[in-house]
């Protein structure tokens, strides 16, 4: 809208001269000799400069015109006629009113007066520079006659100022650059000598060949007139093959420039830049030392390290070195080249010393000098920030050392299997250990040994124990394994040890050979023969045992002891008897090896079938071999032994003894199939039983596998003497009475007495016990869950607890339950059903909070209601059934019997059933306790009385009844929150009177004022039923808060004094509504006075005071308080008061003493303190005001 209005106004201003010319009558045009002349033309830019450019905005045009007429001019208007491309600036027109030189507008122009016309003109950027003619039409009136005059003049549109850039300086960083210089920086200082500012320039710099990169671009150049700017071009590299000299770069600038009045145009400038590459300075590198890294290098060495130490004596810094070492013909690198190369990276400044190392050089020279070594250094130098390459060559020679023998013999020792030994004739794989010491100054890296041996000694192996290096002064152990002929005589023999060595001199290696003579000593074998003897002989295996006459395959043990120092190997003991009655079944025994101090036992097998007890003699021949230290020498020993044979005395009348008999799965009941009856027996024979066949003859009512009265079983041997064993029989128990039954046991067994053995037949009596299943499962308790039931109650849970008294295990438990008449299953609506246990276990947890059983065992509710994870029980476990029932209405309160027939698989795998009678009581239940209250309860006063009636509904009684009252909002609070009502009988009605108090203090302090409405009051009732379960009933009643006003007037004081009566007091509104327009009246004798108190909100108070002049009329008066409620109903409170009469007592004034010096001092101190306090408060207020201003800023 504003743009449209602005366009209309601008159009009107442009068309104003035309409209005036065509519409105003009586216009007179003057002749060419005008009466107005231009005295001065001012043509300036927006910033006041004398140059106006194409695109200039708000250029100022000032015309000073003289009135050459002899009469005054009035209503003069000067309107411009502009050429194409010129237009008035925004907010300005083509016409202007005259102004005086001081800037004020003038209406009448006297003769010969010079006035001014001012315009603001925009020059389009399409206007070309040059002279342009502008006309101004001057219209005015003389004596109400309209005149026009035209004046013309020229203005100049200047050309854009050129882009004038001056190069002030150009220099390198570092100061000089050389061929191969990298990362150099070139700085060019430029200055804007032009009249325009560069607002956005693009600088392009082109480098000549040999420079990298060859082009740079900088954008965003801003440069004001006269401003100096530094152009910096970094990371310039000069190629190594670029020769020193003078080179030229090319710099150009394309810029967006702006004149002083803000006219932007494009400018361009370029220039060449001189670039100088200097000659690099010569390096001064000195070789100050050469040599080997190793302390000693021999003329036959490998892996030698040659070092060269150099020092930088020049001012240049060396950053990198590539070193070449050219080797003579008698030196090669590890890969057989004559050139070794190494590098060094790091700054080497003036005076710094470094060492170059050439590793792994092999030398094979016949001389003590290594000649014609040539070193070439290719170096990268850095001088004053410039980097360049340079090379230098050096030559030198090195000294070598001749080799002498290093190794010496330290000791010789013999080992066999790692233990100290001696060499004996016939020794095999015996080890001779030679210890050598390195007497040389260098480390021996490797020894390759060989040996020449005398006749009769054969080499098995020769090696070093460790193939690690042998430093100077350290020892090496050489292991030589030999075989010695059994025909070689004891004595000393010489052998020649040949050693090929590789010696290390630091990293260098020397290859050489050294021979050493070694003595070999063969010991006498007679010094090492073991001494054997028989130290004991007895009957038995491993330990002495009793052997009886007539026994077959009897063991005879002898013990052979080695008293010598060495082991007797391959020992064989052969026995022969002097008694013809003894038959030797096995006479030759191998005892293997017997170590020194070791006891060996030989076991011979004899047959004593034709012998009697007595003393027996035997001859023992022992053959053995000496095998120490790899030798093999045979020896023999003969000796006689004596052994006694005794008779057996422990045999009883019968060979077996019955220890016990019982069922393996106790207890066993009638009608049990396939149970095991076990008889524990001891073998009292002196010999083992090889096998036993047993037959059990059963009493009537007991059966075997095929319904027969005998059972046969076999016990596999051997059964050792005095060993206890079991005989098991599988028996089926019929429908027999519980008790003890007799059975016969027949046994037939074979004794292992040797040879054909011995058969024995025997007979024994045993007893069979059958348990009574009666009372195996007993009833423990029953109770109802959650609440006591009553006739007509549905969805109840009855818990029956049983205990397993006898059965070790019961699995797959379920019960057929027969309920009494009047009680049915919830899910079948019949009195018969099947259930599985809801809980089985020997330990139980307490009921959840709020449910406590009066008697019996506490059971976890979750385990009762949910299905258990198993239906098996052990002995002593409790079995709990949870029965969901409905109690129909035709049953009376009392106790009833429930029949449970338990079915399960017992510990024997037989299906078993047990009848159990459970007793349950139906004690009655409280359906509901009805709470009866008035239909509406109003809170109209501070104290409100209501009656609550409780009535017990149902068959049961309520015990320990508690009534709890509490408000949800404490506007109305009960006088008593907790009531103990004791016990309530079924159908009993109890009335409780309660007082409710209105709480005005809450209304005053509450965030939201509540004057009226409905307020909930919560009533909680707690009681215990017949079974001890605690129940809670929560209810709420609605209290209607009726707005009421209750004023309490207190602190009343009435006094008659000095001819007037005065009464004061306080009024407090303790109601729930606002008392409006309260007026207090004093009625005393014939005098009435009042005061207006105003409105009083609930919980608020106000004071009043009434005073009236009157005669004293006694002590009786009345105070009336009149107020209006919310419905504009007036209310009055009349209160009698007692007037107290006060007599006026004349008071004689004591003359005040004149102030003394002390009083004046105190007054001065107080005044000074007050002044200081005022000053401090003023300062604090100023500081606080200052901080507030800072915060606002």
Structural commentary:
The chain is mainly β and 1193 residues long. The protein has nine domains: 156 residues, Immunoglobulin-like (Sandwich); 113 residues, Immunoglobulins (Immunoglobulin-like, Sandwich), CATH 2.60.40.10; 115 residues, Immunoglobulins (Immunoglobulin-like, Sandwich), CATH 2.60.40.10; 117 residues, Immunoglobulins (Immunoglobulin-like), CATH 2.60.40; 119 residues, Immunoglobulin-like, CATH 2.60.40; 115 residues, Immunoglobulin-like (Sandwich), CATH 2.60.40.10; 145 residues, Immunoglobulins (Immunoglobulin-like, Sandwich), CATH 2.60.40.10; 116 residues, Immunoglobulins (Immunoglobulin-like), CATH 2.60.40; and more. It contains four helices and 77 strands. The strands form 17 sheets. Strands 19, 20, 22, 24, 30, 33 and 34 form a seven-stranded antiparallel β-sheet that branches. Strands 1, 4, 6, 7, 9 and 10 form a six-stranded mixed β-sheet that branches. A hairpin with a 7-residue loop joins strand 19 and strand 20.
């Amino acid at each position: 809208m504003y743009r449209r209005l602005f366009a209309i106004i601008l159009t009107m201003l442009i068309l104003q001269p035309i409209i005036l010319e065509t519409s105003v009558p009586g216009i007179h045009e003057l002749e060419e000799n005008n009466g107005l002349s231009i005295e001065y033309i001012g043509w300036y830019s927006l910033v006041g400069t004398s140059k106006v450019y194409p695109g200039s905005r708000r250029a100022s045009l000032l015309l000073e015109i003289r009135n050459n007429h002899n009469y005054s001019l009035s209503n003069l208007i000067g309107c411009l006629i502009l050429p194409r491309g010129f237009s008035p600036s925004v907010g300005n027109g083509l016409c202007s009113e005259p102004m005086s030189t001081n800037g004020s507008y003038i209406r009448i122009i006297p003769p010969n007066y010079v006035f001014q016309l001012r315009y603001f003109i925009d020059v389009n950027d399409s206007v070309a520079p040059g002279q342009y003619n502008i006309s101004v039409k001057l219209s005015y009136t003389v004596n109400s006659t309209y005149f026009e005059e035209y004046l013309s003049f020229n203005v100049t549109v200047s050309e854009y100022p050129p882009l004038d850039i001056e190069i002030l300086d150009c220099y390198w960083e570092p100061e000089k650059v050389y061929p191969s210089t990298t990362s150099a920086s070139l700085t060019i200082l430029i200055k804007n000598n032009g009249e325009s500012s560069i607002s956005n320039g693009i600088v392009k710099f082109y480098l000549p060949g040999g420079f990298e990169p060859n082009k740079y671009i900088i954008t965003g150049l801003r440069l004001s007139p006269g401003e100096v700017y530094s152009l910096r071009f970094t990371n310039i590299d000069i190629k190594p093959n670029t020769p020193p000299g003078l080179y030229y770069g090319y710099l150009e600038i394309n810029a967006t420039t702006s004149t002083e009045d803000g006219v932007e145009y494009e400018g361009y400038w370029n220039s060449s830049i001189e670039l100088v590459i200097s000659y690099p300075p010569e390096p001064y590198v000195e070789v100050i030392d050469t040599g080997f890294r190793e302390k000693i290098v021999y003329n036959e060495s490998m892996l030698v390290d040659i070092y060269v130490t150099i020092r930088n004596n020049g001012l240049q810094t060396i950053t990198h070195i590539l070193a070449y070492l050219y080797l003579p013909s008698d030196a090669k690198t590890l890969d057989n080249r004559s050139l070794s190369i190494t590098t060094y990276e790091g700054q080497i400044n003036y005076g710094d010393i470094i060492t170059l190392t050439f590793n792994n050089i092999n030398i094979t020279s016949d001389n003590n000098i290594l000649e014609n070594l040539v070193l070439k250094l290719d170096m990268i130098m850095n001088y004053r920030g410039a980097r360049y390459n340079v090379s230098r060559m050096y030559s030198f020679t090195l000294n070598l050392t001749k080799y002498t023998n290093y190794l010496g013999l330290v000791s010789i020792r013999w080992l066999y299997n790692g233990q100290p030994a001696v060499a004996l004739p016939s020794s095999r794989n015996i080890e001779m250990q030679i210890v050598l010491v390195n007497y040389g100054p260098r480390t021996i890296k490797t020894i390759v040994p060989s040996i020449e041996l005398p006749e009769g000694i054969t080499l098995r192996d020769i090696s070093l124990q460790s193939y690690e290096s042998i430093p100077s002064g350290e020892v090496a152990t050489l292991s030589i394994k030999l075989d010695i002929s059994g025909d070689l005589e004891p004595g000393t023999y010489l052998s020649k040890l040949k050693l090929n060595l590789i010696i290390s001199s630091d990293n260098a290696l020397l290859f050489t050979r050294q021979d050493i003579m070694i003595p070999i000593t063969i010991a006498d074998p007679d010094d090492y023969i073991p001494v054997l003897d028989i130290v004991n002989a007895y009957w038995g295996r491993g330990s002495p045992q009793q052997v009886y006459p007539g026994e077959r395959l009897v063991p005879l043990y002898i013990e052979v002891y080695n008293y010598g120092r060495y082991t007797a190997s391959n020992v064989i003991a052969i026995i022969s008897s002097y008694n013809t009655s003894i038959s030797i079944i096995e006479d030759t025994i191998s005892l293997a090896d017997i170590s020194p101090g070791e006891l060996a036992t030989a076991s011979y097998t004899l047959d004593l079938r034709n012998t009697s007890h007595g003393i027996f003699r035997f001859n023992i021949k022992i053959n053995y071999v000496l095998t120490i230290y790899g030798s093999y020498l045979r020896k023999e020993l003969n000796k006689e032994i004596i052994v006694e044979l005794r008779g057996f005395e422990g045999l009883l009348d019968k060979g077996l003894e019955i220890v016990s008999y019982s069922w393996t799965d106790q207890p066993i009941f009638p009608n049990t199939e396939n149970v095991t009856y076990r008889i524990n027996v001891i073998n009292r024979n002196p010999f083992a039983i090889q096998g036993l066949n047993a037959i059990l003859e059963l009493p009537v009512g007991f059966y075997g596998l095929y319904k027969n009265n005998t059972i046969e079983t076999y016990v596999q041997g051997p059964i050792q003497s005095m060993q206890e064993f079991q005989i098991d029989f599988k028996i089926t128990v019929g429908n027999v009475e519980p008790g003890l039954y007799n059975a016969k046991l027949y046994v037939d067994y074979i004794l292992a007495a040797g040879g054909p053995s011995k058969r024995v037949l025997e007979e024994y009596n045993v007893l069979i016990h059958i348990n009574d299943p009666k009372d195996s499962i007993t009833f423990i308790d029953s109770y109802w869950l959650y609440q006591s039931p009553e006739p007509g109650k549905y969805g109840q849970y009855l818990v029956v607890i049983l205990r397993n008294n006898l059965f070790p295990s019961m699995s797959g438990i379920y019960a057929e339950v027969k309920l009494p008449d009047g009680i049915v299953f919830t899910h079948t609506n019949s009195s018969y059903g099947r259930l599985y246990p809801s809980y089985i276990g020997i330990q139980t947890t307490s009921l959840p909070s709020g449910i406590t059983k009066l008697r019996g065992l506490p059971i976890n509710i979750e385990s009762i209601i949910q299905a258990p994870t198993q239906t098996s029980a052990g002995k002593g476990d409790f079995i709990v059934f949870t029965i969901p029932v409905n109690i129909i209405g035709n049953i009376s309160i009392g106790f009833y019997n429930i029949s449970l027939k338990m079915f399960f698989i017992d510990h024997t795998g037989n299906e078993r059933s047990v009848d159990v009678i459970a007793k349950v009581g139906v004690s009655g239940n409280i359906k509901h306790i009805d709470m009866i209250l008035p239909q509406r309860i109003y809170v109209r006063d501070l104290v409100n009385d209501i009656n609550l009636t409780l009535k017990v509904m149902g068959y049961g009684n309520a015990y320990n009844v508690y009534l709890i009252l509490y408000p949800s909002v404490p506007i109305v609070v009960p006088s008593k929150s907790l009531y103990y009502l004791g016990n309530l009988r079924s159908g009993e009605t109890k009335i409780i009177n309660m007082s409710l108090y209105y709480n005005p203090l809450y209304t005053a302090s509450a965030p939201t004022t509540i004057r009226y409405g409905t307020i909930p009051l919560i009533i909680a009732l707690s009681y215990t039923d017949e079974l001890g379960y605690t129940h809670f009933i929560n209810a709420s009643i609605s209290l209607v808060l009726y707005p009421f006003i209750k004023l309490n007037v207190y602190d009343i004081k009435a006094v008659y004094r000095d001819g007037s009566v005065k009464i004061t007091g306080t009024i407090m509104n303790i109601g729930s509504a606002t008392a409006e327009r309260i007026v207090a009246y004093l009625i005393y004798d014939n005098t009435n006075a009042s005061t207006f108190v105003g409105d009083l909100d609930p919980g608020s108070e106000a004071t009043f005071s009434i005073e009236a002049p009157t005669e004293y009329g006694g002590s009786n008066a009345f105070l009336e308080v009149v107020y209006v409620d919310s419905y504009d109903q007036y209310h009055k409170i009349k209160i009698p008061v007692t007037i107290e009469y006060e007599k006026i007592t004349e008071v004689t004034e004591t003359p005040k003493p004149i102030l003394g010096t002390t009083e004046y001092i105190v007054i001065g101190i107080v005044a000074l303190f007050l002044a200081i306090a005022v000053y401090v408060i003023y300062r604090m207020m100023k500081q606080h005001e200052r901080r507030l201003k800072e915060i606002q800023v």
